[in-house]
Amino acid sequence: MRTFLLDGDNIRHGLNASPAVLTGRFGESFARRFGLGFSPEDRAENIRRIGAVAQLFCAAVWSR
Length: 64
What we know:
Oligomer: single chain
Mean pLDDT: 90
Structural class: mainly alpha
Number of helices: 4
Shape: elongated
Number of strands: 0
Radius of gyration: 14 Å
Low-confidence stretches: none
Order of helices and strands: HHHH
Strand content: under 5%
């Protein structure tokens, strides 16, 4: 069985990067819209996004 660790730090550097990280590459508007900080709302969105990625991983395994 193959496994993959969805590490919180790795997710925060890519999928759930902070606005400061995203601004340089994608611009201020994009960074404000999609970047996540550590407010209660941003933490809830972080968990939601990780859950969505985990669902995709499970769907890929079960669709074989």
